[in-house]
Amino acid sequence: MPLVNYVDHGGNSTPIDVPANDSVMEGAIANGVEGIVAECGGSAMCATCHVYVREEFLALLPPMGEVEDTMLDLTASERRDNSRLSCQIRMSDALDGLTVEMPEAQT
Ligand code: FES
């Protein structure tokens, strides 16, 4: 199973094996990782699953859809170049070791 490193706002990293095809958001919620809220359950409608993706993984991610792009303008914490919605990132072996940082606030 590919591993995701969830880094909280304080810099603490929690490594979790997330099943392939599950989203980064689902991996967090299933394992009680704080810092990802996911109010809409993964429909790209709430922007409370906002993460900052570690630079070296950005090029490996699926392209951002129009809806995700729009929702990222509504995040509680500032949008950055490496902002993504974690519900829109499906895990695969190619993403093993993916590191995402949670923003200061989701709501
Ligand atoms: S869970 Fe709502 S936008 Fe990702």
Automatic annotation (TrEMBL):
- Enumerate the GO terms in the molecular function aspect: 2 iron, 2 sulfur cluster binding; electron transfer activity; metal ion binding
Q: Which residues form the 2Fe-2S ferredoxin-type domain?
A: 2-106
Query: Mind telling me which Pfam families this protein's record contains?
Result: Fer2
Name the Gene3D superfamilies for this protein.
Answer: 3.10.20.30
One of the record's GO cellular component terms? cytosol
Q: Which GO terms describe its biological process?
A: P450-containing electron transport chain
Iron: is it a keyword of this entry? yes
- Cofactor dependence: [2Fe-2S] cluster
Q: Print the keywords alphabetically.
A: 2Fe-2S, Iron, Iron-sulfur, Metal-binding
Q: Which family does it belong to?
A: Belongs to the adrenodoxin/putidaredoxin family.
- PANTHER family recorded: FERREDOXIN-2, MITOCHONDRIAL, FERREDOXIN/ADRENODOXIN
Q: What is this protein called?
A: (2Fe-2S)-binding protein
Write the lineage as a comma-separated list: Bacteria, Pseudomonadati, Pseudomonadota, Alphaproteobacteria, Hyphomicrobiales
